[in-house]
Specification:
heterodimer, A: about 375 residues, 5-stranded antiparallel sheet, B: alpha+beta, Protein Transport Mog1p, Chain A, TATA-Binding Protein, 3 domains, 12-stranded antiparallel sheet, 12 strands
Chain lengths: ~375, ~290
């Protein structure tokens, strides 16, 4: 006994015990912090992946819109070229129909662009959630069913995989119970903008006409109600019709002086629902065989896309992981439950670098711009 | 051995022929642009040759920050150095045009302001023969006389548009029933009985726009294209109803389209066929926009 109490042996033991206790506590803290860190990393990865996926989809959509706008602008310029080829006024019907066909084609492209924008932005939110869940590090155990062969077990998708395949990610929440009965969940909130819409750019098509003066006293060509024929004021006044200059949209002076060789054309709207433009030719002031140039301005409601309503939309993806608390015997590892908000990460991104209009540049790319 | 030699010779001849044609076409196009000055510091957007209604048209589009008047003054002074004489010109607030002639050719220079930039469009084509001018067969002498009487009775200071009323004669303003020159697309069926109103072909036929007119209903023509496009290996991808377009834009301009665009695609191209009522109810317009990949 004396030897036991008064021996010098084992003096280090209490210190060792204290150190071991401290080490155990340090290990527990480390494990706890590591676990929290891992979970935080997963939530951050998920948020980043989701945000980047969303902005990538936005960028792709905006590039598609820029491509559509390039086509629209090219069509607009080409059609303008076509309308600058001079034809005679009485062939205006063919030009008028071409004009309407152009308006229809541009309208169709505009509607298609809007639909592509709507679909792209809706898909972006879905893609954000999908990528966030795929990167969430969900460690749900796959339970082997009773009587299930090992091969069948391996081939069977886990509950999470099945949930992903059925596009359950659109709901934004995945919940599961771990082996010890703890309630787990992973939530993805996407604050992604909906498609802001397109701003149409109205324009005009200038139609050029070249006529000789026909012998007829009057000539009426049926032209749509919204066309404007140019005229030369001097000719009109020589006819004693005072108010015609109201309709003058542009004057093309005729070669050699108006009142000797010019055959003016103007536009008159006929009331009563039916409306036509009318080309008048005054032979009394024009010599037969002389040349007259005229122009019609055709308004185009949608020539191309001026821009999207709001460029550089910002997306924020917030992910929340809730795990059950763990009791390690000496230390309860605390993970905030539903009341405490869980471990949260968020990430923001945006698509930028390109332009939809008026000089389209399909160089949009996605960038992460912040996170926590 | 001899056969092989002949084959090689034939191949060479074909190659020389094709190369010769290419050289001639390139030289012709180059000659067109050698005769037209370019506004200093203007940036070229595109330059192409287009076949419009079977006639070659050369066009170039530039952008500039210079004012419209300055651009037109430049062309007025410089075109004369290349032998062009000015036929007519017109300058408005956001648009200016000058028309030049030389021999049988006509060149139009248009300057148009679009969103703060001035677009210069230079188009060279053959001037229409004045003998082509029909004596206005579609014109309505009676209506003109009636309108003239009304115009003369409108007091000074009153907008004649509010006072004039002439009902057109039934059947007046006839739409042409003969095809304009040009050609249909081989890969897109033409609606039976429709009249071709115009055709434009670019990039060696890779892009084309055609317009037809028919007196049949929109529904009947749509049904035709839905049924027949598949035999030309087209698949209907989307349908666009013109009623989905923003109404306020059209209301402001007094344009209303009733009909649909059918978007067809195949491995090589896309084709948008727009079928809609002519606003005055005279028939149906069919627009075909073909775009090869």
């Amino acid at each position: 006994m004396k030897k036991v109490f008064f021996s010098n042996d084992g003096q280090i033991a209490p210190f060792m015990i204290a150190i071991i206790v401290v080490l155990i506590m340090a290990i527990m803290v480390t494990v706890n912090i590591g676990k929290v860190g891992l979970t935080k990393t997963h939530t951050a990865n998920a948020a980043d992946a989701g945000a980047l996926a969303c902005s990538t989809m936005h960028a792709n959509t905006l590039n598609t819109l820029a491509d559509i706008n390039t086509i629209m602008i090219a069509e607009y310029l080409s059609t303008q070229v076509m309308f600058l080829i001079p034809i005679n006024m009485c062939s205006e019907w063919t030009r008028y129909i071409s004009y309407l066909a152009f308006v229809a084609a541009q309208t169709a492209q505009y509607i298609l662009a809007w639909q592509a924008g709507d679909e792209g932005y809706a898909d972006a939110e879905s893609a954000a959630k999908q990528m966030a869940f795929l990167n969430a590090g969900i460690d749900e155990g796959k339970i082997r069913l009773s009587g299930e062969s090992y091969q069948a077990y391996l081939q069977r998708d886990s509950s999470f995989d099945q949930w992903m395949s059925s596009q359950g990610y659109d709901s934004g929440v995945y919940s599961w119970t771990d082996k010890s009965g703890g309630a787990n969940s992973f939530t993805v909130d996407a604050d992604a903008p909906s498609f802001p819409g397109l701003i149409p750019m109205p324009g005009i098509l200038l139609g050029l006409f070249r006529d000789n003066v026909p012998p007829a006293a009057w000539c009426l060509c049926y032209i749509s109600s919204w066309v404007y024929l140019s005229t030369y004021q001097g000719c009109v006044s020589s006819m004693g019709v005072a108010n015609i200059p109201t309709y003058v949209s542009g004057a093309l002076p005729c070669k050699g002086g108006c009142c000797t060789v010019c055959a003016p054309l103007d536009r008159v709207t006929i009331t009563g629902g039916m409306a036509h433009g009318i080309a008048k030719i005054f032979p009394s002031t024009a010599s037969r065989g002389s040349v007259v140039w005229n122009q019609i301005i055709y308004p185009v409601p949608i020539a191309f896309i001026a821009n999207i309503v709001s460029d550089n939309p910002e997306t924020t993806i917030t992910t929340t992981r809730i795990e059950p608390n763990r009791d390690l015997g000496m230390w309860e590892m605390k993970y905030n439950g539903p009341s405490g908000g869980g471990i949260i990460s968020s990430s923001s991104s945006r698509a930028s670098g390109g332009a939809v209009g008026p000089i389209p540049n399909p160089r949009y790319d996605s960038y992460l711009i912040g996170g926590s | 051995m001899r056969y092989n030699g002949m084959r090689t010779l034939n191949t060479r001849l074909v190659f020389i022929f094709v190369f010769g044609i290419w050289c001639l076409l390139s030289a012709a196009e180059a000659a067109v642009w050698e005769n037209i000055p370019v506004f200093p510091n203007a940036q070229k957007v595109k330059q192409e040759n287009v076949i419009i209604d079977n006639k070659p048209v050369y066009d170039a589009i530039y952008t500039t920050n210079a004012p419209i008047g300055e651009v037109l003054e430049f062309y007025k002074s410089k075109m004369a150095n290349f032998g062009w004489s000015m036929n007519t010109e017109s300058i408005q607030a956001d648009m200016g045009i000058a028309v030049f002639g030389k021999g049988g050719a006509a060149t139009n220079v248009t300057v148009q302001s679009i969103m703060g930039k001035n677009f210069i469009t230079v188009v060279q084509t053959q001037a229409p023969e004045l003998s082509d001018n029909k004596p206005c067969a579609e014109c309505d002498q009676k209506m003109g006389d009636e309108l003239m009487k009304q115009l003369e009775s409108v007091p000074e200071g009153v907008d004649p548009a509010e006072r004039l009323h002439v009902e057109p004669e039934p059947g007046a303003g006839k739409i042409p029933t003969e095809d304009t020159p040009g050609k249909d697309l081989q890969t897109v069926p033409r609606y039976p009985g429709a009249t071709r109103m115009n055709s434009a072909e670019r990039n060696n036929g890779k892009k084309a726009a055609l317009t037809y007119f028919s007196t049949d209903t929109v529904e009947k023509i749509e049904s035709f294209y839905r049924q027949n496009m598949s035999t030309y290996n087209w698949a209907l991808e989307k349908e666009v109803n013109f009623q989905d377009a923003p109404r306020e834009i059209y209301d402001k301009m007094g344009i209303s389209l009733t009909g649909e665009s059918l978007v067809f695609k195949n491995r090589f191209a896309s084709c948008i066929i727009s079928i809609f009522k002519e606003p005055q109810g005279k028939g149906t317009i069919i627009g075909v926009n073909y775009d090869e990949k």
